[in-house]
Structures are given as C-alpha cells and as structure tokens.
Amino acid sequence: MTMSQHEQEWWHERWQQNQIGFHLPDVHPWLKKYGAEVGIHQAERVFVPLCGKTHDIGFFLSLGMEVVANELNEMAIQSLFEQLDLDPVKSPWKAGTIYQAGSLTVYVGDFFELTHGDVGSVDWVYDRAAVIALPETMRSAYAKQLMAITDKAAQCLITLDYDQNEMDGPPFSVMAEEINNHYADDFKVAVIHERDILEDEPNFKQRGLSRLNQALYLLSCEL
Ligand SMILES: C[S@@+](CC[C@H](N)C(=O)[O-])C[C@H]1O[C@@H](n2cnc3c(N)ncnc32)[C@H](O)[C@@H]1O
Fold first, then answer.
1. Pairing of β 66-71 and β 104-108
2. Is the Cβ atom of 93 under 6 angstroms away from ligand 1?
3. Which residues make up each annotated binding site for S-adenosyl-L-methionine?
4. How many H helices and E strands in the chain?
5. Report field, pTM of the whole predicted structure over 0.80
C-alpha cells in the first residue's frame, strides 16, 4: 500500500496553511509523567512514525537516545531541525529525502515506502497521533508495516477515542478493541493510563464531541 496523491496533498495543505492543531507547544505531558512505565529509560534507538515537528523528539535526544523518524511534509522537518538547532545533511532515498544530524535521522516521504533496511535496528517505537491520523481503511496496513519495519519493537502508543458519529477525523477515533485487533497477536497490550481530556480541548468541544478519551498503551514483547 502507498498513500494516495490526494491523501498526501491533504496533509501538505494542512502544513502550508498552518492548520496543525495536533502540534503541541512542548513535550507531551504523559511522556514525561508515564515515560518510565512505558520503558523510555531502557530504549536506546527509537522510531517515530508520522512525527511532524514534535518536541518529543528533542526530549528523546536529551535522554541520549538515537532517533529515526518519518514524516511526509518537508517543511515540518525543516522546522524540526531549526527548533533543535541542528544543521542536517540531506541525501535522497527512494520516496524523498533523508535529513540527518547527530543522533537524529528523518526519512521525509511516505511511511508506506519505508523498509526495515531504512529504519535499521530499533528497540522502541513511539506513536503519538500516528495511527489515529489515518482512516480506518489504512490502519491495518499501517500496523503491519510498522511491525515489519521495526521488527516488532516494543511500542508506546497514544490514541484518542470518541463517538465517531459526532465528528469526522482526523484525528480518527481508535478504540482499545481495534488496538487489540492490530497488535494483540504479537504484543502484550497494556493500557497504562487513560482519561477524558475534553475539558482541556475546547476545539474538540466546538466540533461537537461529548467525550474525548486519550489512552496511553505499552505494547511489549513478552506475550
Ligand atoms: C496528527 S499529525 C501527528 C504528528 C506528530 N506525531 C505529533 O505528535 O505532533 C500526523 C502527521 O503525519 C504525517 N503523515 C500523514 N500521512 C503520512 C504518511 N503516509 N507518511 C508519513 N507521514 C505522514 C502528516 O504530515 C502529519 O504531520
């Protein structure tokens, strides 16, 4: 599977028009609060799919981790390197450009084009707003591709779920049952923390939601 031109354009427009409500001004608070419980301190090399320009990458680097990441939009990655005060070396890969500096490597281009050889060996995956950015028809392919290119590395996953009848995605609502469908054959799936965050998210309230559950999972390899 690859992402259609139309779907890619939709994301590029979001970045061009700065409609990036998903981008947090700081490190995700749950990563700081629950990081130890999801294995952050054991991780040496993390893969961050659909990374945007998240400050979480800077946090991983500050902990001494190596980071390999992927993002469709080049502007986002230029901003990411500027934010980190890193001057990247650029080289081509089959679906775009690789940005590399210090312990950070980002594949700019379609996630579905990545191979295990590109990503290399990783011992942790961080999915915040990646699986929930994709429509239902793509999520099973996403999960399979993620496991294939990371050799089923342990995963820290942050999702949202709400009544999908109340709002169109993205972000899409992804319930625990679906996470289990994608991952429970290969991982022990544990919910580390979850909470209704609607009161902190006035935009989603305006979009018509009556609840918005955020969940933090650890997918670990001990089955
Ligand atoms: C909801 S945002 C989340 C970004 C980031 N994880 C964060 O927490 O800020 C989803 C991101 O995925 C990117 N994206 C969407 N489809 C993609 C694909 N097929 N390959 C790579 N990146 C993609 C979008 O450009 C967008 O930056």
1. parallel
2. no
3. 15, 50, 71, 128
4. 8, 9
5. yes
The number of residues in the chain equals 223
Residue 74, pLDDT score: 98
The mean pLDDT of 201-223, rounded to a whole number, is 93
Each domain of the chain, given as residue ranges in start order, spans: 5-15+26-220
Kind of pairing between the strands at 104-108 and 96-101: antiparallel
Contact between 131 and 142 (Cβ < 8 Å): yes
Cα distance between residue 40 and residue 154, in whole Å: 10
Give phi and psi for 220, each to the nearest 5: -115, 165
- The atom of ligand 1 lying closest to the CA of 28 is 8
Question: Strands 45-48 and 66-71, how do they pair?
Answer: parallel
Q: Is the CB of 108 under 6 A from ligand 1?
A: no
Q: Would you say residue 223 has pLDDT above 70?
A: no
Residue 38 corresponds to which tokens in the numbers above? 């999801």
Please say whether the structural domain 5-15+26-220 has been given the CATH code 3.40.50.1980.
no
Q: What is the pLDDT of residue 133?
A: 98
ipTM above 0.85, yes or no: yes
Q: The tokens of 111 are what? A: 């996630």
Ligand 1 geometric centre to CA of 134 (Å): 9
204: pLDDT strictly greater than 80: yes
Sheet with strand 124-128: strands edge to edge: 89-93, 96-101, 104-108, 66-71, 45-48, 124-128, 155-161, 213-220, 188-196
